[in-house]
Amino acid sequence: MNSLRKKLDLFINDFPMDEICKCISEKYSIERKNVEQLIETFSNETKVTLNLVESHLSTDKRLLEVGAGLCFFSLFLKKEGYNIVALEPALGGFGVFEKIKDEILQYYSNIGLEVLNIPVEGLNISENGQFDIVFSNNVIEHIPNLDESFSSMKKILSKNAIMLHSCPNYLIPYEPHFGIPVIKHFSDISKTFFKIELKPNFDVWDSLNFITYFDVKRISNKNNLHVIFKKEVLYNSLLRMDQDDIFYKRHSGGGIYRIYSFIKKLKLLILIKYLPPMLSTPMVFSMALKNDKGN
């Protein structure tokens, strides 16, 4: 898998940033730095997505990336010979990135990636077939109909399939997109106090469903799915502050960085490693069909 990581680095490094940014900014009168920032963020997150799925990857499995964003990761896997389909409805909260995505897909049209422009709840086995791996990174929190969406994803799973998802856990009162404190059932207080409607990406807020650890447990029970939460996720996420320059730039102005710096100075960071998944944000979890014995 190390070779795959190196290939992903090459794929991202070879991306024609100047050419694509110039084309988009001139064609749609969008400020270039905004285009660069969006592309930089999504391309950087492909490394996290690879960490999420790499141990399960196989060229004989059929993959579905839910909420593929600018489709960087799906394009990369398709280029490397994986049987992958990307789903990206771009429904609300993401402004101009549909235009950026179209330019990127056009540039890599020779790869032949299949992209489904439907909501997650629109998935069905008759039209989309079955998948062996269904995954998403920082997408689940933007899905408006969680119950319907997970029900649809379950229906397109093959017998031994697995779902892999990473998303915020709003049981922890922190909103990572805006770097502000928030309590799920009192989110309007944060919206008003921090004047979200005046921020350039305010529409992202309206796309949030504020999913929690207990929502995932409830949904898995409702759909007869076996769920496992990964440990040490918050710890590893905090370490990115020192290891990932782009991640640091995105979060250095938020409350989570100040908390991280405080914990680090007190030499208490190692304690975060032992927090239960329920108290972790983000949360990473896998879901699979239960067998006849309920396991």
Task: Tag the structure with descriptive keywords.
single chain, alpha/beta, Rossmann fold, 7 strands, globular
Q: Can you characterise this structure?
A:
This protein has 295 residues and is of the alpha/beta class. The chain has a domain at 1-166 and 214-229: Rossmann fold. Helix content is 46%, strand content 15%. Strands 3-2-1-4-5-7-6 form a 7-stranded mixed beta sheet, sandwiched between helices. Helix 4 links the parallel strand 1 and strand 2. It starts with a helix and ends in a 6-residue tail after the last strand. The relative contact order is 0.11. The model has no long low-confidence stretch (mean pLDDT 91).
Q: Could you say what the CATH architecture of the domain at 1-166 and 214-229 is?
A: 3-Layer(aba) Sandwich
Tell me the structural class: alpha/beta
Query: Which stretches of 5+ consecutive residues score pLDDT under 50?
Result: none
Can you list the strand order of the major beta sheet? 3-2-1-4-5-7-6
Question: What's the count of strands?
Answer: 7
Instruction: Give the fraction of residues assigned to helices.
Output: 40-55%
CATH topology of the domain at 1-166 and 214-229: Rossmann fold
CATH homologous superfamily classification of the domain at 1-166 and 214-229: Vaccinia Virus protein VP39
Gross morphology: globular
* SSE pattern: HHHEHEHEHEHEHHHEHHHHE
- What percentage of the residues does DSSP assign to strands (E)? 5-15%
The oligomeric status of these chains comes to single chain
